[in-house]
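Handout, tutorial session.
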Amino acid sequence: MRTDYHFAADENAQQIIECFARMLDTAEQMAAQWPNQANGFVEILAEELLWIEESGGNLSALKESFFAEQIKNIRFTLDKIKESFEQSEVPNWVRWQLPCFLQELREELYFWAYVHPFPERWNYYYKNEFAEHHQNTAVDFQKSKYEVSIFVPAKDKLEYTKRCVESIRRETKQAEIAYELILINHGSQDNTQDYFESIPEAKILCFKQNVRMMAFTSAMRVCEGRYMAFVSNDTVVTKDWLTLLYRCLQANPNFISATPTTPNVSNFQSTAESYANLEEMAQFAAKHNQDDPTQWEQRSRILPVIALYDLEKLNAIGFGDRYFRTMEFWDDDLSLRARRAGYRQVLCRNVFCHHYGSVTGREAQIKENTLQKGRELFIAKHQADPWNNGAYYDYQLCTRLQAMDLPATKQADILGIDAGFGDTLLQIGNILRKKEIETNIDSITSELQYTRDLRMLSQSFCSAKSEENILGLLTEAFQDKKYDYIYLGRPLEDYNNWKKLLTELCNKIKPGGMILFYLSNALNLVNIQSFVSLAFPFGKERLNYLNPEHVRLYLQQNSMIATLERKRGWASAALLGQLAKHVQSPLYVGEAMSQALDTIGFYYYAHMKE
């Protein structure tokens, strides 16, 4: 496949890209004519690779890349090919690893040398080149060899890898879903490669050097299945795991990924489990794993320790981005690109698998601070914080809503205002669907960085230039609509004209409907500590204080009945007691003082009187 490289415009860059094209053609000829003239093909490739290395060595931007490591991986591959000259069938090194590694080296050089140093080029690259440069061309989507390609990357930790692979082979039935197993040795120093080579029919990629994101992008290139399953090597899959995830993806043409619940994962992707060992875990999962679409949750983002993807949709948007060289937040980036393309990601709460938790990645998180570095990379790429508004749903609010006796209707209309990435809106919809209530979401946002995210999950969407513009849109663009649920994503005190905003929201709510919002407590522990020290709270540009009771009374004046729920902090009793000695108030005595100081804010569940 010939691919355009728009920014490889100077003579040296053009020569490099042409050299890669020749090398890929040579690799293809070697596979087609194997084993005839194999030695000559290897010598040609070795010479071309040396020229690539010398040319790339002059590009200072490649110091941030894994260019040098991938050069070593290709040399290692050529050495392995030499050892395979006596084989009559085309070996894995020739058929899969060599072309894949060459494609990855080409993209590593192109991105880090000709795209990344120039932020003004990023938009064009990601819009026009990224997906095409990472496309899988091995699968025929009309008549694929397999239905699913399962890939497992591993770096050392052989004991965990064995449990993982053995569980896949035990719990995944070829008779139900034809699958291939792709095993990726990502620079292991133990006996991982020997173990992989002992697995019959496995397709193996062996990286001599760890090149981080390239293990993921390489895996996608060699899949021959219509769907691609990523399984982390620190997991154990369970009965019917793939069948149930597969049914989910096939249920809706907009679903791009399906993920099971597991322990030891953030983003509220766990479920209540009870077992003491793997045998008990298997028994728990066998009872838990059922075909139940009511347990499918559409989510704004997914953290995939295990995930099944629609490969054709991944071809349209690209999979892992090598820009996230720390291996953190690549999944947040994929989630963002998926939802902005109009695809939906599903957490299947009807499927449970075991996850030990960061067996491979924890060391780098501690030593290299990869989480913070990855977060900074995400912000630089998208101008939005992946841990900010609506990246994951408001757990306390949604848990409370789920426990309520909600009106039984066939259809519920939801309005979100400044709902960030939108995960809380989606979770409200998930809660209602579990109660057999279909939902429709509309959105307004004044936070322009979230415009593309909210537009794709909303039936009607408006972008507001200011707070005043939000009020105008409520009375104009949405003038004929009323809602069963209205969710305000930012704290109420953020809005200067909060009274008028609440009045407009009360006018938009249906009889029996509910407004959900949050109010920060300006008199919490952190702020009081600052005030006692005659300082302003760290990181705050301004601090607004609204009396929680005054807000409740204002809602009452607008025919609303408001229930308040405190959001508690995590301060220790000793710290609360020490601070309480410095704060004197006749309104708060004893435990009441500690409770007031440890209250971060207040949730309001405001019902319209019927």
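The second record follows below. Compare its token runs with those of the first.
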Amino acid sequence: MSHLFIKALPLVASVLGRRYGIKVHIGGKTAYTDGKDIYLPSLPLESNSETIGLARGFLDHEAAHISETDTDLVKSAKLRIVEKYLWNVIEDYRVEKVFSQRYPGCQANFEWLILRFFDRDPVKRYGPEVNVLVWLSWTFRSWAVPQIEARADALGKKVEKNYPGLIDRLWPVLLSIKTDCPDTAAAIEYARTILRVIIDYHEAKYNNEPQPDTKKFSGQSSPEENQQEASTEKIALGGGEKLEGEGGEAGGAFSAEGSDAGARQKSSGRGLGNMGASRETGGLKSLLSIAPDELPDNLESMVRSSLNKHLELAKGRVVTMADAMSMYINGLTESQIIEAKKTTLLLASQLRSLLQALTLKRSTPGYYGRLETNLVHKVILGSPKVFRAKGLRQGLDVAVHLLLDASGSMKFRIELASITCYCLCEALTSVRGVNVGATAFPGYCSSKSLGATVAPILKHGDCMHRRFGLTSRGGTPLAPALWYVMGEMIILSEARKVIFIVTDGEPDSKEEAKDAVKAAKNIGIEMFGLGLGSEAIKKLLPGRSVVVDNLSELPKKLFWLLGRGLDIKLRGN
């Protein structure tokens, strides 16, 4: 079951979203995030390890940003294009590190992604100034995955060849980031500082200022010396002056007074906004006016592009998972409750009798209990089992979910469907060891851009209530609704999981509904059907469905159906 679940990418995505407390939408044409939710395209029924790795890595990466990145702060900072790229490189390293500590399983996913995209030479060839950005990106990634250090060093040698001494100026700042980058504000200011160091190097070069000897790539200093240098030149939070020409403040500025670049910048009074005095408009200074399409690809864009291509090439039918929408559901009237209680009391009584039959077993000889005179003779034979006591089988441990069709075709049966759903939930909640949930489909949707929706009526673990008064509308998206319910149930702890479908007709897509039923069976979820005035459900779930035309038929037929649903494993039927 575990292996089959892992291959079901829609369920993997749904479970990860719930684990992180982030809503994951499945259905559409491309993978992206809006900063709050994660959107994935329609997913294949079964996926290979490569596609699953890309999807899980994308979800983990975006979830880390949603959880840890202050997007409002980034917007208010008004970063330049190159500053935003630098910030993204730093922030990726920071949030992935934090998220891996919180969810240790994510670390393996991040490492897989980094090796997948960075354990090779850059796909594109860039000019010397853009290679500085490439080297920075590879360097941060090598801290997370040491296997790519050699590639990062090879890029560093190219940078050193074109810009002798630049890496030595940048290295203390990078080590500071590695040891102390607590939040998005720090990442923003570090990005600004890196750009200041680069532009300051450019100014010094064309003003004929002396360049420092190279160290990192000449072997003249040890890592301990670099660390010591970083600690003495560490950029401190707070107290730094805002440079002319920069964007809005981002929760405190960094002071670059500890570094050579910062000291020169402060003494000369130059910021990034008044670089016009330079003798040259090209070179490293061209980074100030770089266009987005000239920047190196970041991990997010590489993963998203690769995932979209994999999903486009996926063979077979794909899966769309319904989105849960909050909608107002009326409470049942007193007359409806009275009518329902007649059915509920009878059904609950029958279920309790069934439960007692399941949990009680015949008395057997034992070492303690009531003395059984018919067994006393066994003492002569050396057997101490002369007592008899009633035993108990293991009780029920079942999660049951009712999936109720509230489509437009239910217009004349929606009251019967609402009362039926209430009766089922009321009766099941009275049975010990049964965890009940209920969902209606489709849910109310005010936006035509959204796909299939559902409306949760009773969530697993919630107290029973009377808000079951549904209204009918829309189509019958049974397959997306089933995928939603499977995503809800797969995380429950109960040993057995059962879905009851209550419907009056055919689903929008018979083939997709059959695929969903098959997927549920593969992961161990049992499924039963209740048709309201229609035999259609018997085609989808042959041998596991009943049909009722009115409420009076409900107790007898539901008892048979629930008996199979709750007892089928124990009785071996």
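Points raised in discussion: Confidence is low (pLDDT under 50) at residues 212-271, 273-281, 568-573.
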